[in-house]
Structure formats: C-alpha cells, structure tokens
Amino acid sequence: MYIEVLQSKIHNVRLTQTELNYTGSITIDMDLVDAAGMIPNQKVLIVNNNNGERFETYIIAGERGSGIIGLNGAAARKGQKGDELIIMTFVSMEIEKAQLYQPKNIFPGQNNRLTV
After folding, report:
1. Active site residue 92
2. Which domains does the chain have, with CATH numbers?
3. Of these residues, 2, 8, 58, 101, which one is catalytic?
4. CB contact set of 95 (below 8 Å; sequence gap of 6+)
C-alpha cells in the first residue's frame, strides 16, 4: 500500500508580491526551493495563516537571494503582501518506508532568508 506523506515544508515565509495578470503559480526564491528539497514545476500545497486559505499550485523559480514569495494568476487572490504562508510538498511511498521517512522542513528567518 502507498500513502502520501509530507516531503518538505517551507514554514512561515512572508508573501512579498502578488501578480494577478500572470499565468498562475507561486514564485519562490531558489535558495529556499533548494534548501527544502523542492524543484521548479513541483506541485505545492499553500496555507495562508492570515486568512485560512489552502490551495494547490506549482513552483516557479525565483531569483536566488531575493527572498521572493509571489502569488501569481488566480492564486494572487488568495493572499496579500505580508501574509504568512506555509508551503508544502508531498510524496507517495510504501507505508513501511513512510513510517521511517523524515520530511525536510526549513524555517527561514527575516525577509525569507535562510538562517545558519
């Protein structure tokens, strides 16, 4: 049997921009994407801690070191600049492996930058 488990999480980043006139997706600083073990075009679940919205979209590579977290297209209606987001990916695996799996969670600091 296969089940879905949390693969990785970028916890409590701040939304830096919204762009309604765009095809769709979330733009994420590639430093954060890499640190979380995510990849561009990967499906993500977004939770907005400020308004309770939960929605799915996909990752677009943002400029490294920029701290950008941007909602694009229809997703731009799901948050406002400054909102606190949690960005998660999931993976499907056999239940025996899932019981041992440890997700990669990162907790960026101020301005969505990685802390040492």
Report:
1. no
2. 13-85 (2.40.40.20)
3. 58
4. 1, 2, 3
